[in-house]
Amino acid sequence: MPSLPSEFTPDLRRLKSWPSMEGSPWRQPYLAELTYGELFRLINRLVSGNKLRILEVGCGRGYLSLELARRGHDLLGIDVNEETIRIAYRTMITDPYNSGRGSLEYQVSDFAVWNNVGREFDLVIFNRALHHIPQPAKALEKVRSLLGPKGRIICVEYSYDQFDGRSATWFYHVRRILEQVGWFESDTKLTDSLGDSVDQLKEEWHEHGRKERLNRFEDMYGPLKSLFEEKHFSWEPYIFWDIIMDMRISSTDTEMDFARSLNAMERALIERDAIGPVLFCFSGENSQDPSLRSYLDLNRHS
Length: 302
Description:
By secondary structure, the protein is of the alpha/beta class. The chain has helices at residues 29-46, 63-70, 82-93, 136-146, 165-180, 194-211, 217-227, 239-246, 252-271, 295-300; strands at residues 53-57, 74-79, 104-108, 121-127, 147-158, 229-236, 279-285. The protein folds into 2 domains: 1-18 and 27-159 and 216-237 and 277-302, Vaccinia Virus protein VP39 (Rossmann fold), CATH 3.40.50; 161-214 and 239-275, no CATH class.
């Protein structure tokens, strides 16, 4: 994990250079905008309504909850990590853009055991959090119970198992170029053999997911589409994040242009179905249809 300066502020409106945060897009404003900024804009486009009651599960350091609260929504962010919540809270109380901000609250809690004390929400958001939660179907059942009629869920989630040979081939060519010009820092180097390197990259990617016990795509999308009426689904660029984490280009202008090109290239490959994308965005509505059996019941009796 990148080291965090004591004064680090994860805020899209107060971006600055943090050179010591190697391996994190927060290290440069243009990288934070291209990654965390794009995630915020993606989610914000799907947020429909004013002054919504929003729960963000796995809010981390709170950049998303903070930005949505600034748009007048009432936010509650929960996360199991006490340190990230401490940073989120510090960022909130030092916010110079709090005029007109909705209520904003953070809690340290595991969603599986979190007690909402009868609170109801208009929207629940998982921003790269559901893939970490054991038994995602149960977590999504809980979400349904927290949403009012026509309440919505937005999930932007990493699916490690979708990284395929096409993904590894693109990753190989980009990383190999960067290595050859000294713009990539890694403990291991790729070989000249495309086939061997592609196999190596796929195995490393999948092994990490298995080791961390991350949820696979169908573990998440299956219950999502069964429990909620799908309103939006898309695949988004995310593999390029792994490249820019270890990319080191001395010229900030060159690094910014190259990172933007990688993002645009991956998006174009996704649109042409020429790559296995690993980040999906789902938005669905809680129909509250009393005749709808739960996903768990359906699978229990299947």
